[in-house]
Amino acid sequence: MVTGIIHVAYNAKDMEASVNFYCDKLGFTRHVDINHKDGSPWIVYLRVPSAIPQYLELFYGQQERPASDLNPWTTVGYNHLCLSVDDIEETCATLKSKGVVLDKEPNLGDDGNYQAWIHDPDGNRIELMQMMPNSMQYSREKNLP
């Protein structure tokens, strides 16, 4: 059975801009670069800063329409990546100090968690979430057998 999520994968138009964003701004670490058999670059794995191994997988050389051109509410497929944070206000202040523009300032969502929104260099939407003890998600966890 499924025991977790190992990675999420994106196509990157500008690999170095994407790596710099996720590593320098969000604190991921460059874990491993994988090349094709001919030696050309293929994938960069970035490790999420967590105790459990989780990765963001970035593929080289994509030149198609950026994610920001897609309507996430009417397009089938990808919508957004949600990252867990310990302190939404502190995280947002740190990101702003690193030049990251917040698409939406921290607020309390309808599910009872604090959230803010940013995007990566390719326009992929990223939700930052501080899970709260009385949120819908945590309340449901407490009621599971």
Automatic annotation (TrEMBL):
Q: Which PROSITE patterns match?
A: VOC
Which SUPFAM superfamilies does the record associate with it? Glyoxalase/Bleomycin resistance protein/Dihydroxybiphenyl dioxygenase
Which molecular function term from Gene Ontology is one that the record holds?
metal ion binding
Keywords (alphabetical) are:
Metal-binding
**Listed Pfam families:** Glyoxalase (PF00903)
Record Gene3D superfamilies: 2,3-Dihydroxybiphenyl 1,2-Dioxygenase, domain 1
| Stretches assigned to the VOC domain | 4-131
Q: InterPro entries attached here? A: Fosfomycin_Res_Enzymes, Glyas_Bleomycin-R_OHBP_Dase, Glyas_Fos-R_dOase_dom, VOC_core
Q: What protein name applies here? A: VOC family protein
Q: Which organism is it from?
A: Gehongia tenuis
